[in-house]
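Q: Here's a chain of 272 amino acids. Please give me its 3D structure as tokens.
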Amino acid sequence: MSLVMDFAGKVVAVTGGARGVGRGVVEAFLDAGADVEFCGRSEPTTLPERDGRPASFRPVDVRDAAQNEAWIAGVAERHGRLDVLVNNVGGSPFGRFEAGSPRYFQAITEINFLSAAVATRAAFPALRAASGSVINITSISARRPSPGTAVYGAAKAALESLTRSLAVEWAPEIRVNAISSGLVHTESAVDHYGTPEQYAEIARTIPRGRLASPQELGNVCVMLASPLSAHVTGAVIPVDGGGEWPAFLSHTPNADIVQQADRLDITGGSSS
């Protein structure tokens, strides 16, 4: 088997691919030669394409199980196969937990967890026939406190648990993995954090000093779906630039840490 990321003749379905991370995923698979279909509630102004091969869009509200299942079945029927499903749809407004209504909790769970569960179940026959894979986009909020988006974090934690369970239940025919996304520079990122100065301050909390690009998350999706990851299943891969700068080091830049280590002689050997 040639260990290259050539997806010519492969079919990829992406939920929520019109913008942000989803758009990056769609474009990364197009770059790899795949036929890509994506869905969303609103049609994008332009369809991503490569070498005259546009991605295909269908309007779908993935919270509606019937629409979700029909779209997955349609992708497999139109192409005669389905090799990769990327469950990307998700998100949550900020708000205090005690202010949320039961309907709000349900909606957040539907979009961030149940929609992925429904799509994955619907894709099972086609993915098994193709020895395909599922990639779930989760969040660092699944693994650390998420004040203001507590239900979102809980739903993403559930999606990571589903990833690990299905990797075992569906082995060896289907691989199931997840990407734990850190902060991402999307179209609205600067406005989301307030001002360019506030955005830069947020970026400085990431060890690599910047937010990820949607394309970088898309590239990891391609890698996980490729033969390069043939024995990888049940994994949750962090794509977060090193996570978040530890609070107790918030006033100690990287260079200062290195200088302190040199002075204390803790970088190698023992001091006497």
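Q: Can you summarize the key feature?
A: Strands lie at 11-15, 35-40, 49-50, 53-54, 56-59, 84-87, 133-139, 175-181, 236-239.
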